[in-house]
């Protein structure tokens, strides 16, 4: 030590703490995706936690120019933290930053991204605090750090801003603003460096597709996952579950999987992960019997290990310092911990036929979860595990199902960037129908799925309105663990409930194909209107008239639209909330048709509708093609042939790609899937005519008889 | 470099990042105050920012044993963060952690201490996020870091806990708790080390006294500061202010200082700090005239510098990278910046007689203040400046008044540990009367002052109820910058408003003496019931009966009491909120008497009172002595003799220390003050008789004729 000059030593120590990296190197890692490195990134990050393997589809994308001025991106490491800045133009709106519940437009928001239960304000604490945003100008930014990132999405104003706001005097200037104009997105990452990804478009939806493909593409659920699911009372016995399944059958309501709540475990909170033999004396026989009724079984759990669990001692060395509800917390970033936990799950559940999980309480909130003073044997911090725990439980449980050759589709309370390919849907304890729809829209910007679950309702109207939206979402679920409610609980709306549940089943070919596009192309199946061409970016440019009477369309798209969304390629869903008897719907450019009647609804305009209780308003784009099947009580099984009714809407020619595979195994990963081309074209005689390409030889083919229905007369 | 082995170099780099300091060294720096150092603390901290000079009174305190088991305190530095743990016993309640608005009991709370506007939940974001807590067992802990500290105040549960919670099964155990028992307070400080202070009691109030004396003792306002104050409409001219002052005089309402809102400045938001010559053509003459009316002038400002300010260019090199409302942000941790700013204040305001400031918007919230990506020329981080900015504006403005020989008393939006000696009262934009009273109680645990200001009211009842509490608070203020309301705005309650305003003035000798005790002894003048002997600690030990009928007293003190508080040595204040016609009051052990009538109110019991609108319920401890003066419209000036009516309540003998000095200058710091001993004792004839010690020769003496009033017959 004495031979080494103190000052040089000090200098060496100080260098990493103050690094200016004003012009970053950008490396195009896939067409239209660039990676830049600021400082010295953590060795553990979101993509690593997710074990994300980029989709091969990325390489088929078109090249695109770097979408920003590189000199406008600034990254510096100061005293162990990374300071990031990205430019913002005047007429630019931002979307994303995770699963937000109140806002779609993120410009102006200040967030600290932090995995947590949503606490009724959009402050960054959410189930999926994804550090990714997409601009209305058609580019995106992703900061790959498993850290609590402070985000100033166009709120901070710098002295050296190139586009400074106008200085005014609050005393006398009427136009004085408490929120002066900001020309940058800034972030503070509490790490000595970070990986940054920039995504090209050209359209905003292409940005999201690239982001999702970077994680391997969206998940492809088994077909049954898109059917109907009921979660039963937490203390039901196997006999009561059997009765529930039979009641659905007798009532003629569709049902594909039942969720068992904590009572299936011998002890829970903390959990043993083992069956309670008083309530479930023969789990294996029970699941076989349910399987014969075409009902899959999904198990609630959280990952916190009871002292009474058989794995308690074995997993102990791989758990954190603090407990959650007296359960030890497996350090799932260590292979040893995840192997012990999921080997038990495999033996106890998957090997006897359990189809999936609802993995609860991996999000927060603080008073339940481990505190940030907890430490873990991997050396990863509490913060790093908090940001990735949802990814880890999804990854290792999904790996387990993959080993066993069966697809799964389940529920999880937390996710993050890198998790798009995991077949899990996020849910929470909040129960605002409006917030649920906002979350459904935001899920499409965040690479996650969300269900606006139905839990209980005070009135038949609310029950129906919620049920209608859940049937136009990634998972059609009643979560009755506490309420024990059933679809027919309100007899006065039973026919409407049945109708929409049957519609969900009839639309299975559409839903399944749209999820395949999520998987293969990265296109979110449920997404916000800003991603729809011709809707406007949220900041309409051509005119400045702000009078609603003069120009209602412009006003509508300039404002945040949180109550209508796109479902798949062609459908615009405009749900009603309890108490509403009418609502406005903004129809993008081009003609739009009523889904139920095929009649023209409007074109690039704001319409007001009063659909009554019976139906959830759904509109179809001109030329839209919706493949449907007969209403069934259960999703078609592997290889089961199904007749199709292919609907066409509007006056334009249309085309559609119908996806097919065995719907349950992973054979699609070996190429055992097919896309069939559907085309509807106007003939010389003026009539429309549809055709569907033949099934490829050697590929799955579940299409039976095809009938054509031209909805618009 | 090549001669220095790489591995040793790496080892040296890694050593500071993982330090185990399980047995800390504790150094008794004052009687009953120990300082311990974990890791390598920041060079900039709360006490340094405040420039706190410990009170000489500390050295006169009794010695006390270290109040905790040293081995139970754990501090470790891991990867640049400090992990702290302090023990908790089963029957222990915690108070403090800053100016909280909803909770008094802090056990179980999870907070991230962060200077900010209170956002309607107690999550650590508050105007005074003081990292200090006091235990019901009679000790306290202070973590001297200008950082966002995560606090788990008895919520985290460790695997290695000595007192682990009982493991239960939520499925079947009715007593299952979502919040298992925790035996520790844990904190995460994002710094490589920290100074920790431990305070002995023996009583909880002694802990707070030691904490306040460490900062130099509480502030001693000028006598006029305890009179009545009105803040006028933001755009009033000097003529309108003059009219306002005259209206008070004519109506016969007390008034000691008027606050001018932003319009006094030529431009504000951002600020010039210079007079607007259209609204105030002759500031100096205006202030002289107001002074002749015995009215002081207080100026609103925030510290963000307008490009039009005369100091703009000069201060620019000492400002941060980001602006606030287009104003540059002086780095007040640099002497250069504070000198430029406060030299201007001194020249423009103090030299012409301005008496004080309302320093606004130094707290938050995020969308207004500089973002945490801002950097500052001192090298202090945004986080460090955010946590200390309130301290800095108080310190440097107070220094300026001290230089000029005049005491001040003003308002500030943010403070922190170390700021007890600054003569500033915190206020905010929230307006829940209940929250305001909770904050008043919590201010006493945090070393700060708080005013439950009156701003506007929908009804006469609300106006009166708010007015009553503000008269029993550190600053009796109407903040009418927006509402332009006046005490007589609701004629139907004008007599009651006048009565309580006069009472405020009559009680001046009591208030002034109680503030002197805050200054010289550290005793908070307004404080929670838990600090009152015989009230119970919040967790009563002797009995376990929980039936309200059988033992209402025990039940009441076990619960959190947020609607009554102590004002000075002898008074218990139990305000009513709008809509209440009766309320319960918990009287501690010993007899308590009605302040207005002297009649016995009760003894160690819960009473129900329905006082009507006229009065705010106030109770006096047995033997209580309250020195009062005639109702005046203005506080007595320097040297002004005032007659005293000394009241005695109850049956016990009593004693009181009456403070006296010139009430406006800093001569008390040179010893020019006196304490006079008041005693009321029962004579042999059974009658009570009072006496007051003579004034010391050469010391201030403002006591005129003394009359005695024995309130309890």
Describe this structure in words.
The structure is a homodimer of 713-residue chains. Chain A is an alpha+beta fold. Chain A is 21% helix and 26% strand. In chain A, a hairpin with a 5-residue loop joins strand 33 (673-682) and strand 34 (688-692). The N and C termini of chain A lie far apart (89 Å). At the A-B interface, helix 1, strand 5, strand 12, strand 13 and strand 18 of A face helix 1, strand 5, strand 12, strand 13 and strand 18 of B. Strand 12 of chain A pairs antiparallel with strand 18 of chain B.
Short note summarizing the structure:
With 713 residues, chain A is of the alpha+beta class. In chain A, 21% of the residues lie in helices and 26% in strands.
Layout: helices, strands, pairs:
The structure is a homodimer of 713-residue chains.
Chain A: H1 6-14, E1 18-21, E2 26-30, E3 33-39, H2 46-50, E4 74-78, E5 81-87, E6 94-96, E7 110-115, E8 125-126, E9 132-135, E10 139-143, E11 149-153, E12 157-158, E13 184-189, E14 193-200, H3 204-214, E15 228-231, H4 238-251, E16 257-260, H5 283-292, E17 296-301, H6 312-315, E18 319-324, E19 327-330, H7 335-348, E20 356-359, H8 382-403, E21 410-412, E22 424-426, H9 433-446, H10 460-470, E23 476-479, H11 494-506, H12 508-521, E24 526-527, H13 552-558, E25 565-567, E26 571-573, E27 583-594, E28 600-609, E29 618-621, E30 625-628, E31 642-648, E32 654-661, E33 673-682, E34 688-692, E35 703-710
Parallel strand pairs in A: 7-8, 15-16, 15-23, 16-17, 17-20, 20-21, 21-22, 31-35
Antiparallel strand pairs in A: 1-4, 2-3, 3-14, 4-5, 5-13, 6-9, 7-11, 9-10, 10-14, 11-13, 18-19, 24-25, 25-26, 26-29, 27-28, 27-29, 30-31, 32-33, 33-34
Helix pairs in contact in A: 3-12, 7-8
Organism (chains A, B): Dyadobacter sediminis
Protein name (chains A, B): Glycoside hydrolase family 31 protein
Domain Glycosyl hydrolase family 31 C-terminal (chains A, B): 555-626
